[in-house]
Amino acid sequence: MLGRDFDDARTGERVTGSLARVAVELELPTEQVADAVLAAAAARRRLPFRWRSTAVQDGGRVA
C-alpha cells in the first residue's frame, strides 16, 4: 500500500508502508503440480515462497 488515505480509518488502521510481493499463477494438470513445486524449490532465489494447489472446476471469459 502506498499513500495516506486515512479519511475513514480508525487509529489502529493508520499505517504507511509498501508491500512488494509478486504472485505467479500457473494452471497445470494435477500430475504436474509436484514437479512444478520441485522446480521452484530448486530455482535460485533469495527468499522462501508459498504455494497452494486449487482445483479449477470451470473457467471462461466474459466480454
UniProtKB/TrEMBL annotation:
Q: What is this protein called?
A: Uncharacterized protein
What is the protein's species of origin? Sandaracinobacter neustonicus
What high-level taxonomic lineage is stated for the organism? Answer: Bacteria, Pseudomonadati, Pseudomonadota, Alphaproteobacteria, Sphingomonadales
